[in-house]
Amino acid sequence: MTARYLKLFVTYDGSAFFGWQYQPHIPTVQGELERVIKLITGEKCRAVGAGRTDTGVHAVEQVVLFRTECPIPVEKLIIGMNGALPGAVRVSRAEEADESFHPCFSARGKHYRYLFRLVKTASPFLERFFWQLNKSPDIEKMQAAAREFIGEHDFAAFAKSPRQYESTVRKIIETSVSLEHEVITFDVIGTGFMHNMVRNMARALYLVGNGEMRVAEIEELYRNQNRRRLGAPAPPGGLYLMKVMY
Prior knowledge:
The protein is α+β, with helices and mostly antiparallel strands.
């Protein structure tokens, strides 16, 4: 049979999984997808994602590729997968892909979103999807800080383990911070991101918005690479992979 390459567009609630990457005996997004693909196709296939999201991090549109010789039409594949997957993950659409396509290496950019929520009292029902704040930050300062991310900078201070990368320079194309109905939305689009980078960017915005850090310190972090300045990264529940651009 002729090999086919199928591209899936997957959305999931990351709080239901221990991250993207397969781990034996515990639920992961990759593990669930591979389980269901084998159930439907009868083949043991590797589900390759556009990025590895951490435990608790969500995806509105993760892109996943797998190789199969099964002739099942993509329409029936979607129905079959969604019928067998847990409710916290869904395949929104699927299509045939070229053999040269790779979800990660073919990507030109990614769009991430981080959500803060203003609350009087923290709620366990919101914990999985927002960073809950009981004090209103200065939105204009957060917007000014977000603009400092735009361009090509050395983001070593924003990475979990910067030494593992050949280069810690990354290019951010666009950022925005907005407030609507008690929800503060931080959007960032870049050509590539390191582990914990967006969560640390959100942490920096939080510190600036609460007067614990100056906007000018963003530029200083590029130079001094002082990772301790930011402290712990923003909680994973507020982070969403929105879209992968090709």
